[in-house]
Amino acid sequence: MIEPFALPPCEPGGPDPAALVDSVKAWAACDAMVELVVCFGGAAGDDLVEFCKVWDFRGGTKERFDTARIDYEPERDRHIRGLIHALGLGGGDGPRHREYDHVLVLGGGIRVALGRSDYTSRLLAGGLKTATLTGLGSLRWRDDREFREGARLGLGPVDTEADMMAEAFGKFLGLGEPSTRLAGAGWWHRSWDGDVHVLAAPSTRPPLRANTADTLVGWAQRVVTPKAGERLLLVTNSPYVRHQHCDAIRLLGARYGVGVETVGFDDAAMTEWGRPLSTTELLQEVRSSILAMRNLHDSAATTSR
């Protein structure tokens, strides 16, 4: 199997803009990307941002669980999935260090929030140390499918992504009632003894819900303003690591001079929370990664001038 393409680096002190530009260019021009584009009728040298519209199976604004599914012929499907694997959407096998200043757990649907919180609790039980721990979500309201899934899992009533993250933190970290509850003007914040938090930030694109970028910026504004030289660990799951890592470098690493590392559990290793993703779902995340890498490239290129 082809070794996955490494994530762009960001050590404490902040990223090297020239190195980021080189990393993005290398990824965009790598053999796996070129072959994947060719598989869908493109050619080497095509504008990836424009071309990747062919992999928008969410219709622009739909949620991930509404991604359209296409059944490709088995041999073609295996080939496409192999190329996606080589693009490195899942990151490494785990944290490279034993201690971080801040750990951020990124939110999402019910099983996503539970899985990432479970994985984080296992890392902490295994000796990972952090000064602060924050779960991030949005105020997107649950739909009927998610309410039914929550009931099936024996969870209490949860209205939003932020409520779900708080429920997941309580379940896996053994938390009681929060010591602080704050809300207003699109903000939603729960904290436990000052070091554990769950935050929902307002959207910068209403009426669309807040996205990862909104919650990362919201965390730095509302919970902890990171200091230059600190280490930040993001927890997610495959195949979202690459694009969320790039957003964190651009919005936190470069702005505050912090080191950024992103890890994600593999669904195959935590089958109680994961599910097999369709090939179109994986292609959708290739598109998300291309857009995040473009934003990172443009930001780094401007800084390096």
Characterize the largest beta sheet: strand count, sense, and whether it forms a barrel.
Answer: 7 strands, mixed
How much is the average pLDDT?
90
> What CATH architecture label of the largest domain applies?
3-Layer(aba) Sandwich
Question: Termini, distance in Å?
Answer: 39 Å
- If strands are numbered along the chain, what order do they take across the biggest sheet? 3-4-5-2-1-6-7
Q: Into which percent range does the helicity of residues fall? A: 40-55%
Summarize the structure.
The protein is an alpha/beta fold. The chain is built from 10 helices and 7 strands.
Account of the 3D structure:
- This protein is α/β, with parallel strands linked by helices.
- The protein has two domains: 17-90 and 279-304, no CATH class; 99-269, 3-Layer(aba) Sandwich (Rossmann fold), CATH 3.40.50.620.
- It is 42% helix and 15% strand.
- It contains ten helices and seven strands.
- It has helices spanning 17-28, 31-39, 48-51, 74-86, 110-125, 144-152, 161-173, 212-222, 241-256, 279-304; strands at residues 99-106, 129-137, 180-184, 187-192, 196-200, 231-237, 259-265.
- A seven-stranded mixed β-sheet has the order 3-4-5-2-1-6-7, sandwiched between helices.
- A hairpin with a 3-residue loop joins strand 4 (187-192) and strand 5.
- 40% of the residues are buried.
